[in-house]
Design goal:
Elements lengths: L2 H19 L9 H8 L3 H13 L3 E4 L2 E4 L4 H9 L9 H14 L1 H7 L2 H16 L3 H18 L3 H9 L1 H12 L2 H19 L3 H30 L2 E2 L5 E2 L1
Antiparallel strand pairs: 1-2, 3-4
């Protein structure tokens, strides 16, 4: 059995046992005992425990490996790095945002109160006053994160928070197109107005318009990028890159 396979085998077994029969605060066997149990070296047992810790399932203490509360942030942080700087993956990221953020709208609206309308309006004022594309994108993320938080789903809220950097990266793409920023602001304000009057149909319509326009701008940006990489004909009939 290869080293990587041995580590993964120990990780898979311990993960299943933690899920089935352990509670936060329970202590697991130490690395020496695990090495004896699984018939592997202590380094393999140690790597398995480190992997479980990275995934937020345990923490290494002086008393031994201790089961912790599930740490979704740790898992989502690893997941989010895949998207951090890949422009073309933004299509999938936009799909995720559209499905996630549209899906939470009914719950968000049901939980919305006057304070939420005030907070969302204040965020839009920050977007208006932003001096840089980055500042505008950070405020834009805060706007959508607030709506996600209003829905009351802790896992979705954490996912959205941990995906902050790749989402802001995507948002900055659109905000480099001046006309997009103006149209985007209009859709944002219509969303706030719909929340204020408890209008789910109006909120859903404004959100759909927002995501559709974002998709159009993203596709325009990707097309422009592709054209910049495509060889063009020069005056003598040869190709110029």
């Amino acid at each position: 059995m290869g080293r990587t396979t041995a580590v993964q085998s120990v990780v898979d077994t311990l993960r299943a046992e933690i899920t089935a029969s352990h509670r936060p605060g329970d202590l697991l066997a130490n690395e020496r005992a695990l090495a004896e149990r699984f018939g592997v070296g202590r380094n393999t047992a140690r790597e398995a425990l480190v992997t479980l810790q990275v995934h937020g399932l345990i923490k290494i203490t002086r008393r031994g490996p201790m089961v912790t509360e599930p740490d979704f942030d740790a898992v989502f942080s690893i997941f989010s790095h895949y998207f951090a700087s890949d422009l073309r993956t933004c299509r999938d990221l936009l799909d995720m945002r559209t499905m996630l953020e549209t899906g939470v709208l009914p719950a968000a609206l049901a939980n919305a109160g006057p304070d939420d309308v005030v907070a969302l309006s204040a965020i839009l004022d920050r977007m208006d006053a932003a001096l840089t594309v980055r500042e505008n994108a950070v405020a834009d993320h805060a706007f959508h994160a607030r709506i996600v938080q209003m829905a009351g789903n802790t896992v979705i809220a954490r996912l959205y928070a941990v995906m902050r950097d790749p989402i802001i990266f995507y948002m900055e793409i659109g905000k480099n197109v001046p006309r997009h920023d103006a149209a985007s602001m209009g859709n944002h304000r219509r969303m706030v107005e719909a929340i204020g009057r408890q209008d789910l149909a109006g909120l859903t319509e404004a959100a759909a318009a927002h995501y559709a326009y974002s998709r159009a701008v993203l596709e325009e940006t990707l097309s422009r990028e592709a054209a910049a990489r495509t060889p063009t004909q020069n005056g003598s009939g040869g190709q110029q890159t």
